[in-house]
What we know:
By secondary structure, this protein is an alpha/beta fold. It has one domain (about 10-330): Rossmann fold. About 30% of the residues lie in helices and about 20% in strands. It contains twelve helices and 16 strands. The strands form five sheets. The protein has a seven-stranded parallel sheet, sandwiched between helices. A hairpin with a 3-residue loop joins strand 13 and strand 14. Belongs to the peptidase S8 family. Keywords: Hydrolase, Membrane, Protease, Serine protease, Signal, Transmembrane, Transmembrane helix. This is S8 family serine peptidase. It comes from Nonomuraea salmonea.
Amino acid sequence: MLRKSAVVALAAVLLVPVGPLWADDVRGGQRAVIETLALTKAWRTSKGAGVTVAVLDSGVDPHHRDLAGSVRVGKDFTAGANPPGTAPSRLHGTYMASLIAGHGHGPDGKRGIIGVAPEADVLSVRVILEDEEPGFLTFNSAERFENVVARGIRYAVDEGADVINLSISKELATREERAAVRYAIGKGVVLVAAAGNDGDRKKDGDFAPYSYPAAFPGVVSVGATDRRMRRAAFSNWNSSVLVAAPGVDIMGAGPGDEYWVGRGTSQATALVSGVAALIKAEYPKMSPPLVARALAAGAKDLPPGGYDTATGFGLVNAAKALKEASRLAEHTEVAAGDQAHDPERPLAGGSAGPIDVVTRDERRVTVYAAIAAGAALGALTSLAVIFILVRRVRRAHMSQDA
């Protein structure tokens, strides 16, 4: 029997292999995403150079021609789940990595997949098996794999990741995962996670299940939109969702120089991780709360009232996010890295416990005092931004309830 707390799912609803394509067909298949995210304009400012994005997933093929030279293969936390000699699938992880940092191939890199941050580096950390791998049931039932995500997050932080992509989801969280998230944020690392693909499973009539690690405080939770830029039917909708990105018919790379098309909050998450990488490349010391603020403030297709549980603060726009980041960097000193508070240590004169803001339907927007105070050590403005963001969410929910 699978233990719910251990089951981690890849947040992609469907992956379909693409037959033989000419190189311009692949890039042409990305045109809608490139235009929606305003990447051509954003690339005039940043392409992610110098940033490392850790992809906590099923593994990344470092030899794919669109990723070659950009991937460092890190630790495999699933070791021992598959029978000896079993080669990892690495489909989902390669796909996500290509959306984040694919650099294409051929003359001037104009063939194949171009990622949101084509000059960024990828750290592959294997924390999940794909459904078809023979050790899948063992992985999701053996106690020794209970906290692989938590261990993977800490490992990625210690290996120098600037952004961590988590295109994975689970229904229940662990204390170790919560602590790992706090550790990462305290070190200035931006975490981006999938809101989940249970959008058609309603609870209490007005929102879909929460998914972890996306629902942890401080994590950028990403929903998926369809071709009409509305919430995709499968995308979870609840008050954890911060922003949204395209998640339907997304072209990406697969192992062995293959190409795939798929849909899910996985894909949307990878695209937003790429935008976060663009921001961190320009402003490496910008704290995670301010990166999240830039993503939200730079969003387009804003929902009525400025926020809703379907697409959060709107659809991410890379060019506008960079502009917002520039504004924040100009007026605010930010705490990150060695300047940030260590979340594993008590705060001077205060509690390290959570502060909960609860709406009438008991949905929570939780802000950890440890995270807020950590940012405040660098600048009081960072703290103000967090509470402004929370108040906006709370007002939006109360408006819905009225």
